[in-house]
Known about the structure:
By secondary structure, the protein is an alpha+beta fold. The chain folds into 3 domains: 5-9 and 228-277 and 309-412, Aminomethyltransferase beta-barrel domains (Elongation Factor Tu (Ef-tu), domain 3, Beta Barrel), CATH 2.40.30.110; 28-47 and 130-216, 2-Layer Sandwich (Gyrase A, domain 2), CATH 3.30.1360.120; 49-127, Alpha-Beta Plaits, CATH 3.30.70.1400. The chain is 21% helix and 28% strand. The chain has 11 helices and 19 strands. It has helices at 5-8, 28-37, 57-64, 109-119, 141-149, 193-203, 219-224, 243-252, 257-260, 298-306, 319-327, and strands spanning 39-43, 49-53, 77-83, 89-99, 102-106, 125-127, 131-137, 161-166, 169-176, 183-189, 209-211, 263-265, 310-317, 348-350, 352-356, 359-370, 375-383, 392-397, 405-412. Strands 8-9-10-7-1-11 form a 6-stranded mixed sheet. Helix 5 crosses helix 6.
Amino acid sequence: MTTTVEAMRTPLKGYLTQIWGQPEYTGWIDEQMSWKQTCYIGDWSFLAELLVKGPDALKLFSDLSVNSFAKFDIGQAKHIIQCSEAGKVIAEGILMRLGEEEFRCYSIPAHWTAYKLQTGQYNATAEHDNTFNFQVSGPNSLYVVEKAAGESIRDITFMHFRKIHINGREVITLRQGMAGELGYELQGPSEYAREIYDATLEAGKEFGIRRLGSRVFMTNHLEACFPTTGFDYLYAIYGEDGTEYREYLRTAYSNFGRGLSQRIAGSFEADDVSGWYRNPVELGWTRNIKFDHDFIGRKALEAEVAHPKRTMATLVWNSDDVVDVYASLFRQGEPYHYMEIPTNNYGYMYADKVLKDGKLVGATTSRGYSYYFRQMLSLCTIDVEHSKPGTEVTVVWGNPGERQKGIRATVAPAPYKKDNRRVDVTTLPSYFR
């Protein structure tokens, strides 16, 4: 069965919006500034996890992922991308190599990998872990983790991990940076989650640590250009070819109804739900695609990489036009669609038309207000010929059937904020004196 566009546009009821904790702790503006000035701790323990073991474990991930595994050391992590035969993204997340035949993956790949393992012929086993996953990100994150662990972690290079101890508990520390800044993930058994969270928060007090609330957690993805499922694309499972997988999700994961109740909003229109799918090239992930192995979607992606149609950019929205949207609330007559600040409601993929001289040239998503830049920004999959920074376009604001407004916007690089994830930590002052 195929999910229709009409079904996707129906309002959500009872959607869980608090999986990232409280909406605010010290105020969303203060929290937005944390990853530029100090650091934050955020709780991503809701992400699905899958532990895969066995002689065919690496082959399984290689068959499903666009990434190369020619070099994948124990203690290394990768951002893996998994696609449909049509080359549209089905899942993406983090894969960590724990041993020669042992791997752990996070987020949607945990579901897709488990399904393909169950329905395929692989000599491997899989089980879902129950672990915590805390992000500590920002320029002071190094000092916070070092103080909590009581040891230097300067040896952990970008996208690598090792074990440390906090409060005597063994914790895996992965260096990454989902805010586009120096960052670390702390992972361990969920039974110690509160203990590790509190110890890290206490260690971070002298370094200005903030708790990240749900109102701002997606702003860092926007500024740093990390396209996210449900916000920038729908994973490609809603067609006829995804019927069996959707049924598997409903029966295997009682908490996955949230993912299958995804909704769309915004001015972008298409006859089929596939209009909201994206391939890795459109999302700015071309560098992850390697044709040194066979994988699902390879043929489609070979053609796309050779002749890309769209690419990823940032749009900077005209401030006067944005202000006019809010001003309409204070005038008589129908106001424009309310522009939630700092970001849109969770549970909906807001996609808006992007026009150039009246012609559709892209779709923009993840709209959000950045207090740091004092600008309304969004990510945009845009036709390659109109992707040059400085190009002026128009965003159509408002759902179909509502009063709509053309908002001027300017194409800018993606990421918009400087990428500081790979800073050389060996040059930073030592916490230990």
